[in-house]
Amino acid sequence: MKKYLIEDLVTFDAHLMTLTHLDQTTELTTNESELLQMVLDGMATKAAVIQQVWGSKGLVVTDSSYHQLVRSVRSRLEEHGISGALIKTLPRQGLKFLGSAQALTDAPVPAAERGLADLDEAADEASRGPLAQHEPPSAPPAGRARNWRRTLRFVERALLAGLVVWVGLVTWKMISINDRFPWLTGHFGIHTHAHVSPRSAGLKLLASIGVRPGPGERVYEISRNGDRWLAICAGARHSSDERCTTYSTRDLTTS
Question: What is the pLDDT of residue 54?
Answer without folding.
Answer: 96
